[in-house]
User: Which sequence fits this backbone?
């Protein structure tokens, strides 16, 4: 019986892949113990760990002359070896005799009975607590919780961030230029909001902008806007370079006067 | 003894059969339909509360013509219910009562699988219609996979003579026809099990016969 492994560290979780080879001519039940400094997060289906797994490792039958592949996750840092063979015994007489083996099997293989969260409307208060209870290991919860949180901030942070990022240099822009840019920005945003939006949203935008004809004239205006913006950008950057380079010989002039 | 009354198809009369069979067995009936409960409920705690860990089993059992563990009606309650606890709820009842009859929901989800896995035996309910029979067959396959014996099948709301021999061959269990009888239909809402309300009737005799079969099969 020998054990091979590979280790991967992703998102603060170590993924351990194990292969157990049984060279003997008899099937063997192997008990593997996790050596990493953290609990085993076993493979699960419908929240129920696969047969044989517990917090410390797994018991598995390896057929004669065959291999078995296993994998688990662990919040601890990688270490070598990640797991050790604790015992190798015969497989006689140890059938699945746990009272809840069938119940676990049913929960694992059949669909979730619960109505989807979306149908509950606002009345979602009772659901979070039992969901936490239903995971037998609280270690799952820290893994589950951070996933929605990093997902949520980018849209809220980036949407206002973009417009603020664009408007913050406006403080250095003369008011007339700023109001011209604001008008162009509004036209661009109107047309952008029509792209890939739902029928309802698009209808609302069309209504607010004088129908299809209004939007068509808006896009003509945008063509002019683009030309004007590019011309202004070119002239502005040229002037900015010259402004930076221009260094009046004030000292010499003072001496002259 | 825990008896699961299942059948796959909705609306074939599983709750009616479960209720009346529990009466014939002098047992307690559990409304296991977490999403669409059918058996009568009042204001007390329900199976939803028990499965959410907010009530004890015996707080939720109410006595009546047939002792009953009702199930709540709310979707939030169904979502909060931990179906794994259903196994221990049924075993707890089984320690105190001779017969625990579970009215299983339609479909083939975990809330059918758990009672079937815990049950000592199952009774399938079907209607004399091909699609209902196909669903009953799927439920029988699930029962077989979970090592629960099917001790009988009920062909419910029979008007004409159903093809009993065909159904028996398909489901591999003795089939009992239950005639379309208004007293059976009313029995749940009025809480008047037909074995009490009309003991001499044909449905009462059929249900008593099924109860004896169940007892015989689960004695060994």
Assistant:
């Amino acid at each position: 019986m020998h054990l091979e492994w590979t280790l991967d560290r992703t998102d603060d979780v170590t993924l351990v892949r194990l292969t157990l080879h049984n060279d003997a001519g008899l099937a063997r039940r192997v008990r593997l113990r996790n050596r990493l400094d953290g609990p085993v997060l076993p493979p699960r289906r419908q929240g129920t760990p696969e047969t044989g797994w517990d917090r410390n490792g797994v018991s598995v039958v390896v057929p004669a002359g065959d291999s078995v592949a296993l994998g688990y996750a662990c919040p601890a840092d990688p270490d070598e070896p990640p797991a050790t063979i604790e015992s190798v015994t015969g497989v006689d007489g140890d059938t699945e005799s746990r009272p809840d083996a069938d119940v676990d099997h049913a929960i694992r293989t059949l669909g979730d009975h619960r109505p989807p969260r979306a149908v509950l409307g606002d009345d979602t208060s009772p659901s979070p607590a039992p969901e936490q209870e239903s995971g037998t290991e609280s270690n799952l919860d820290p893994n589950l919780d951070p996933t929605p949180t990093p997902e949520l901030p980018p849209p809220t942070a980036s949407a206002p961030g973009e417009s603020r990022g664009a408007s913050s240099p406006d403080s250095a822009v003369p008011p007339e230029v700023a109001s011209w840019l604001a008008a162009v920005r509004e036209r661009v945003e109107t047309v952008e909001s029509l792209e890939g939006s739902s029928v309802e949203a698009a209808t609302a935008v069309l209504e607010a902008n004088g129908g299809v004809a209004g939007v068509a004239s808006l896009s003509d205006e945008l063509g002019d806007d683009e030309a004007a913006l590019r011309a202004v950008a070119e002239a502005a950057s040229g002037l900015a370079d010259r402004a930076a380079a221009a260094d009046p010989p004030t000292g010499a002039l003072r001496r002259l006067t | 003894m825990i008896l699961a009354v299942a059948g796959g198809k909705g609306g074939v009369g599983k709750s009616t059969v479960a209720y009346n069979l529990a009466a014939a067995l002098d047992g307690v009936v559990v409304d296991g339909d977490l999403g669409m409960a059918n058996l009568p409920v009042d204001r007390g705690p329900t199976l939803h509360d028990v499965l959410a860990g907010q009530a004890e089993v015996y707080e939720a059992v109410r006595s009546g013509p047939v002792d009953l563990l009702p199930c709540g009606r709310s979707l939030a309650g169904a979502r909060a219910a931990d179906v794994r606890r259903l196994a221990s709820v049924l075993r707890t009842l089984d320690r105190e009562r001779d017969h625990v009859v579970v009215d299983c929901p339609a479909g083939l989800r975990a809330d059918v699988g758990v009672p079937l896995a815990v049950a000592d035996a199952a009774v399938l309910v079907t209607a004399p219609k091909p699609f209902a029979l196909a669903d009953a067959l799927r439920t029988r396959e699930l029962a077989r996979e979970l090592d629960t014996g099917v001790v009988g099948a009920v062909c419910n709301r029979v008007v004409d003579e159903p093809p009993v021999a065909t159904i028996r061959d398909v489901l591999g269990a003795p089939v009992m026809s239950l005639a379309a009888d208004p007293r059976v239909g009313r029995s749940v809402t009025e809480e008047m099990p037909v074995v009490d309300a009309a003991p001499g009737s044909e449905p009462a005799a059929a249900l008593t016969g099924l109860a004896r079969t169940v007892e015989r099969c689960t004695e060994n």
Observations:
- Residues 50 and 175 of chain A are 67 Å apart (CA to CA).
- Chain A touches chain B at residues 46, 48, 100, 102-103, 105-107, 109-115, 117, 119-120, 123-127, 129-130, 133-134 (CB under 8 Å).
- Residues 211-245 of chain A form the longest helix (35 residues).
